[in-house]
Amino acid sequence: MASHIKITKAPGTWSVRAGGAVLGESTNALELTEGDHDPVIYFPREDIAMAFLDQTDAKSLCPHKGEATYFSVVTKSRTLENAAWSYENPKPAVAEIKDHLAFLNMEEITVEQI
């Protein structure tokens, strides 16, 4: 793994909400820290209500993690474009995040330990 990336099991139970709806809760979330960036919580896909997410055509490339695929989060009042991402085929050094989703830190989305 790139020396500046660390993946650990996130302690306790984590939830993600958007537009007042609970998108998921997990006791198996992962915390990824990368350099001096804020930690990012990755939720196992099976713990997320995927009916609220629509995959988009957006992609990005991280030299350490691989290609990210993006999802829009659909709430009752609006669609939050490209607000979640996943590494479908991450680089071997970060293989733990495969089949996990992370969410943008934004006003309409809350990721918190409960």
Task: Characterize the structure shown.
The protein has 114 residues and is mostly beta strands. It has one domain: Beta Complex (Metal Binding Protein, Guanine Nucleotide Exchange Factor, Chain A). Helix content is 0%, strand content 54%. The chain has no helices and ten strands. The protein has a seven-stranded antiparallel sheet, with no helix packed on it. A three-stranded antiparallel sheet has the order 3-2-10, with no helix packed on it. A hairpin with a 4-residue loop joins β7 and β8. The N and C termini lie far apart (29 Å). The model has no long low-confidence stretch (mean pLDDT 92).
List the defining traits of the structure above.
114 residues; mainly beta; Metal Binding Protein, Guanine Nucleotide Exchange Factor, Chain A; 7-stranded antiparallel sheet; 3-stranded antiparallel sheet; globular
The separation of the N and C termini measures 29 Å
Q: Total number of β-strand segments?
A: 10
Question: Strand count, sense and closure of the main sheet?
Answer: 7 strands, antiparallel
CATH superfamily: Domain of unknown function (DUF427)
Q: Under the CATH scheme, which class?
A: Mainly Beta
- What fraction of residues sit in β-strands? over 45%
Which class best fits the helix and strand makeup? mainly beta
Total helices: the number is 0
Order of helices and strands: EEEEEEEEEE
Shape: globular
> Averaging pLDDT over every residue, what do you get?
92
CATH topology: Metal Binding Protein, Guanine Nucleotide Exchange Factor, Chain A
Which architecture name does CATH use?
Beta Complex
Order of strands in the sheet with most strands: 1-4-5-9-8-7-6
InterPro entries: DUF427, DUF427_sf
Domain DUF427: 15-105
Protein name: DUF427 domain-containing protein
Organism: Sulfitobacter sediminis
